UniProtKB/TrEMBL annotation:
Keywords: Metal-binding, Zinc. The active site is at D81. This is Ketose-bisphosphate aldolase. GO terms for biological process: carbohydrate metabolic process. GO terms for molecular function: aldehyde-lyase activity; zinc ion binding. Binds 2 Zn(2+) ions per subunit. One is catalytic and the other provides a structural contribution. It comes from Lactococcus allomyrinae. It comes from the Bacteria. Zn(2+) 2 binds at D103, E133. Pfam families: F_bP_aldolase. SUPFAM superfamilies: Aldolase. Zn(2+) 1 binds at H82, H179, H209. Its cofactor is Zn(2+).
Amino acid sequence: MVLVTGKELLSVAKEKNFAIPAYNCGSGQLLNATLKACEEDQAPFIIAIHPDELSFLEDNFVASCIDAANKTKLPIAIHLDHGASYEQVIHAIQLGMTSVMIDKSLAPFEENIEITKKVVEAAHAVGVSVEAELGTIGNTGNNVEGGNQQGIYTDPAQAKEFVERTGCDSLAVGIGTSHGLYPKGLQPKLAINVLEEIVKETGIPLVLHGASNNLDSEIKAAVTHGINKVNISSDIKIVFAERLREELNDGNTEKREPNVLFPAPMKETEKVVHQKNQLFGASNTAKYYFQ
Ligand code: 13P
């Protein structure tokens, strides 16, 4: 199909009660592996690019994403993950992203509202959708997305006020996940009761960040109870990096061609993408967007 906005993707997911996966495509290999697996699954998805990933990949990577999206038969959005400022968001819109996140979750409530509102006004003027964040995602270290050291649950009443005053299209909520991998022995239990309250109060699609390394049963419960976008970064990168390490350390010191080194790591990423698409209920949902 074509490039669509985040709002178009998430509104169908909300109506049909599944979640759109957002994969952080921090390299061309991750983009191609993700795209291939999603095409095979007929799963619409979001190409998420964090500002640090964008600085590394450079602006023309977004042009490749747009081209790739326009050549598939899937509805795809290209999304700025964790935009930290108004300027970063405007830059992403200028590059052609169809969805942006403004993350001022670490700022005081009123400041979060003020900046999010300003971003919404600018983005909506050019048909781009906006994800905001209230409450915080924990941070386990060793990841690009950051977050608070300990996540703070989103307050449902505050979420209602935030959505009404900002006009954001979707909201990232704090219900107990953290970006990155959890330390040994720590397995968070997600606050599904808090999520249910936020769903009732806001009525807009909700987003789960930091969804790697959680129990499948916890993620499934979150999707069943109203999460319509799930962000995955670490889980698709770990398997890639582990397999690449094996390729580099297999004793063949002559190995150097990217087209020899990367296919096996990409296959590992594809396997994870297939599993997540299934878990989020996103497989075989592309058909809903063609009606
Ligand atoms: P994980 O690294 O836990 O998958 O978090 C990804 C994320 O939330 C991107 O915004």
